[in-house]
Specification:
homotetramer, 131 residues, mainly alpha, Arc Repressor Mutant, subunit A, 2 domains, three-stranded antiparallel beta sheet, 5 helices, DNA-binding
Chain lengths: 131, 131, 131, 131
DNA sequence: GTGGTCTAGACCACG
DNA sequence: GTGGTCTAGACCACG
């Protein structure tokens, strides 16, 4: 796997794991239906606790990113990731709010901010070949 | 004050406080040099512990938003908020990354995302009359 | 641990703790990567409140002396302590200034003063075997 | 007066005042027998509390820097400042200890440190013409 | 009155 | 078990 964790970060490990896997999906390293390692093997691989992997997987399942079959194991959701709904967009807005608030204080212009976002979007497109 | 906390939220109270004060600065409800309530009075006002307020104030001081002045008490930094530097922008990028990553997965287009950001920027401009 | 606090001193306990740990590093009793006791166990050991230990640890982390690691717990920074930069030297100068100022008033000669410093340096070298 | 205070500093104002006056003596801007402003006038001059000036003066008197006559007012001690005794030197050593300790950690060499001290000494000599 | 420091005690998220 | 957060309450130095 391509998982890269920072054990010194304030961000909990399970959250980092979730982010990394979502990033894998965004970059199409992980496609719908693709298998993910079992809780046990991923934990062993990265050298973290079973609970931690499990917590990340449960959250990803909850959010519609993965399916956990008793037997087939863990797979990226075969139907694709659920499209953004109103709830997602409102949560997204809530998360963006403090970032934009502080940026305004620090004299980051709207143009700069949008360009930064745009740049991040393009990084995904490049990796997926969707340019 | 205009502080509005959500005690049910997972976001720690001191973090919410920080966000609210930064928002106040962004919306120019708080201007450079303006006085902020003392640790004690704000704590009493909101009905939280003074240590919690103190933690928020210490962080804001660290980040250059406020000064804790021997005589004047706590004030919004009279020289204005430090402009975004490389460190800030790189942290900002790190925070935006997972948001954009998940948005890509959920088929939020770049245009939609930028528009959402733009809309948030305009909310600040409207409130400050900087339109 | 080798921590030795003076509860009668005007110096806050958390500051004393910081000094003691830095001294431990200077004397190489604590080496990069070495584990430090947890907040709780150190507090219990010394017989002080865990918040006091925590305050010291947070400061030491801030200053690059220690890492608070998700898995390993608290350790002396494995990459070694950050070398003195301009900021450190200017702060050091500010701290030395009043000491030298008063010494000048009290007719301590430059030679005496330097010798005193030199002696203190040698105490560290002796303990570390770096003579 | 040449007093220069930093109200944002963590250093209490009365301590800053003490340092400034001692510095004045070290630089011979203030000579034995010279008059100092009254508590009241100095406080008014700098714009600080009477108590604060008084506290600084009491400490300076205690340390042998000044005399406080009921009628003649405040003067730099006419007999000159008491020479450093064992107590002073031991306190000085205690204050230098953590500075050197941290410097050792941060790879400041003995030579660099001594040179910094030397430089500070020379700043006093230059100002007094004692070069 | 104000911030700084310290304590005792509690709950929770994380691993 | 560990650090993070929060509370209630207390004393002190400072101004």
């Amino acid at each position: 796997m391509f998982i890269n964790l920072d054990f010194e970060s304030k961000e909990p490990i399970y959250v980092q794991l979730i982010h990394q896997i979502i990033e894998g999906v965004a970059k199409k390293k992980l496609q719908p239906g693709d298998a993910l390692p079992s809780v046990r093997s991923l934990a062993a691989d990265i050298g973290i606790n079973l609970h931690t992997v499990n917590k990340a997987y449960q959250q990803l399942k909850q959010d519609g990113f993965i399916l956990i079959h008793r037997q087939k194991g863990v797979v990226v959701h075969p139907d694709g990731i659920p499209k953004a709904d109103k709830v997602y967009k409102s949560v997204l807005k809530e998360k963006l709010h403090p970032l934009i608030s502080e940026s305004v204080c620090r004299s980051v212009t709207e143009e700069e901010f949008l360009q930064l976002c745009s740049q991040l979007f393009h990084e995904f497109k490049e990796e997926t070949g969707d340019v």
